[in-house]
């Protein structure tokens, strides 16, 4: 059977990425242009063409550079204008005209090496491979200085592509392997995916499967570390074709599904996020219903207590004497005071619940709405980098909102004594492993190194579900307040025969001493948030403190601003005297 592999997906990727975005070298080009503007300040057409070129206003650049060429005989400035026009037309994909403009630039032009580089790029995109080789060979002879604005690995790689198209496989193999060595030294992951794919295609077209397949696999594995959806889609498709040709249809199906997944990610982003927004609105409404239900239950309980109180008063009036009535009146007053305190606490709790739902959820939904507006704008312009950043931002908002709602539900159940609670013995290590597994994507997103060195021998007594909630909140906070490339450690210490200390340590932003003391205060009210952009921090901490107390445990915090935080949870090694 003839092998079929979509090699064009890699060729086009590399050709379009020849335009290196080296900011330092681009700034040098702009610096020289500004110097020319100052030198020829009275040439208004040249000044406007130059400014519009730097600002990437393509149409205005074409208009004023043409006026400069029409009314000026200054060969130096005309070289700049021909260069401007060539680059603009190249970006607009009007390649024949771009080539003509660049060929009008004289060799005296200060950035003539950039002209040759652009001519090579245009020839490659026009499939004029011999001409492209001619230009790229010239570029190799140029010194790599601040005027060059090119990467040797890119030029060598494109030479390999040219020879591959010309079916000169020996030279193609040499240049492609050389470019891979350079890019591996530079750790250029994005370009390496294309390089691996191209050398694999070279071998695969020659039926050298034993050499081709490892490079296809390298390209596929490396694509997982980058954010380019198109490359992820292409590498998955290539692996599917390879497995189909190897008659391994089960693996091929997996790769096909992954290919379709990335394809859907590229084509259906608007629909996906519309559904996500509707789901978020539905979740908010459901949570509001739960809050209303809690309020109704509180009113019923208050009415029941009042009923019992009035019944007692009637009974006391019938049975008591004046002295006994006086004593009962004192006792009744004490009950009223206690009930008032309870009512005040319930009202404060209710107000806090309203504050959380109305402010935090409104803020998160508004942030999602704003982000989706930007997402639609960037979808129109196909700005994939910005789209990727917005998708990560939306994911962070969704996760934070979910954590708030989850904590709110558990806190409500705990306050109304509806949660199931059973203290049993368990191995602490495996509970930590289960919770940490669900946070692997967040850890990878911030490149945080995670270590679980809890001893497998540590046996503690606690309610399993509440312990998981405690761990989830503290691990989520550790990730949230850790810097990128940070470290989070979870380990245990056995200080005595009664308690085992579980420690969650990070090297993040830490907290002030005042904040540390405030977080450890005993209160039945929700802690106030210092950062309005952080969703549910106070509720999560209050929930953890309540559950640790219910598990007959202890909580301590060690932290230093700018150096990190240690959360110390002391859990009982023996069966507590009282279970709830």
Strand content: 5-15%
What's the main sheet like?
A: 5 strands, mixed
Rg calculated over all Cα atoms: 34 Å
Unreliable runs = 1-24, 524-537
Shape: elongated
Helix content class: 55-70%
Q: What would you call the structural class? A: alpha+beta
Strand order of the largest sheet: 2-4-5-7-6
Q: Tell me the distance between the termini.
A: 70 Å
User: What count of helical segments does DSSP give?
Assistant: 22
Mean pLDDT: 79
Number of strands: 7
Order of helices and strands: HHHHHHHHHHHHHHHHHEHHEEHEEHHEE
Briefly summarize what is shown.
By secondary structure, this protein is α+β, with helices and mostly antiparallel strands.
Explained architecture:
The structure is a single chain. The protein is of the alpha+beta class. It has 22 helices and 7 strands. The chain is elongated. The N and C termini lie far apart (70 Å). Mean pLDDT is 79; it is low at 1-24 and 524-537. It has helices at 8-16, 23-39, 44-54, 58-71, 75-91, 95-103, 112-125, 129-141, 152-165, 169-186, 189-205, 209-223, 229-245, 249-267, 269-319, 322-381, 384-415, 428-437, 440-445, 464-480, 513-519, 537-550, and strands at residues 423-427, 449-452, 459-463, 487-493, 499-506, 554-560, 564-572. Strands 2-4-5-7-6 form a 5-stranded mixed β-sheet. A two-stranded antiparallel sheet has the order 1-3. β4 and β5 form a beta hairpin. α6 (95-103) runs antiparallel to α7 (112-125).
């Amino acid at each position: 059977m003839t092998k079929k592999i979509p090699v064009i997906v890699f060729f086009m990727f590399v050709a379009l990425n020849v335009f290196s975005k080296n900011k330092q070298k681009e700034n040098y080009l702009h610096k020289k242009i500004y110097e020319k503007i100052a030198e020829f300040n009275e040439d208004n057409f040249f000044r406007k063409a130059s400014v519009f070129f730097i600002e990437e206003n393509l149409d205005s650049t074409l208009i004023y550079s043409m006026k400069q060429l029409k009314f000026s005989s200054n060969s130096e400035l005309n070289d700049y204008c021909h260069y401007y026009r060539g680059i603009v037309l190249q970006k607009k994909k009007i390649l024949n005209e771009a080539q003509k403009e660049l060929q009008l630039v004289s060799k005296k032009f200060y950035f003539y090496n950039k002209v040759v580089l652009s001519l090579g790029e245009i020839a490659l995109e026009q499939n004029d491979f011999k001409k492209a080789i001619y230009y790229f060979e010239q570029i190799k002879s140029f010194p790599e200085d601040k005027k060059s604005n090119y990467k040797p690995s890119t030029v060598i790689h494109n030479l390999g592509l040219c020879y591959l198209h010309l079916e000169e496989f020996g030279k193609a193999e040499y240049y492609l392997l050389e470019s891979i060595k350079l890019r591996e030294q530079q750790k250029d992951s994005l370009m390496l995916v294309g390089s691996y794919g191209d050398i694999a295609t070279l071998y695969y077209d020659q039926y050298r499967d034993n050499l081709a397949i490892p490079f296809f696999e390298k390209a596929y594995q490396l694509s997982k570390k980058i954010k380019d959806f198109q490359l992820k889609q292409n590498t998955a498709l290539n692996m599917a074709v390879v497995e189909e040709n190897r008659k391994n249809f089960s693996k091929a199906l997996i790769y096909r599904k992954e290919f379709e997944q990335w394809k859907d990610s590229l084509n259906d982003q608007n629909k996906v996020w519309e559904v996500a927004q509707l789901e978020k609105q539905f979740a908010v409404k459901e949570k509001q219903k739960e809050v209303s239900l809690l309020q109704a239950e509180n009113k019923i309980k208050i009415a029941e207590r009042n009923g019992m109180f009035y019944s007692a008063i009637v009974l006391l009036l019938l049975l008591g004497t004046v002295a006994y009535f006086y004593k009962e009146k004192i006792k009744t007053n004490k009950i009223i005071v206690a009930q008032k305190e309870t009512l005040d606490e319930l009202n404060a709790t209710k107000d806090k619940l309203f504050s959380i739902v109305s402010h935090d959820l409104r803020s998160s939904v508004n942030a999602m709405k704003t982000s989706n507006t930007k997402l639609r704008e960037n979808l129109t312009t196909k700005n994939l980098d910005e789209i990727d950043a917005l998708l990560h931002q939306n994911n962070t908002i969704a996760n934070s909102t979910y954590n708030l709602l989850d904590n709110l539900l558990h806190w409500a159940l705990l306050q109304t004594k509806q949660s199931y609670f059973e203290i049993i013995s368990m191995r602490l290590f495996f509970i930590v492993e289960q919770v940490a597994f669900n946070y692997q994507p967040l850890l990878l997103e911030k490149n945080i190194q995670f270590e679980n060195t809890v001893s497998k021998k540590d046996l503690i007594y606690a309610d399993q579900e509440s312990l998981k909630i405690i761990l989830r909140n503290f691990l989520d906070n550790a990730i949230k307040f850790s810097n990128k490339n940070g470290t989070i450690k979870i380990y245990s210490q056995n200080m005595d025969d009664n308690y085992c200390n579980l420690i969650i340590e990070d090297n993040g932003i830490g907290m002030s001493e005042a904040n540390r003391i405030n977080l450890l205060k005993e209160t039945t009210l929700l802690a106030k948030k210092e950062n309005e952009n952080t969703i549910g921090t106070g509720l999560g901490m209050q929930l953890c403190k309540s559950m640790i107390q219910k598990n007959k445990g202890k909580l301590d915090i060690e932290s230093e601003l700018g150096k990190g935080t240690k959360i110390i949870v002391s859990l009982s090694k023996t069966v507590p005297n009282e279970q709830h």
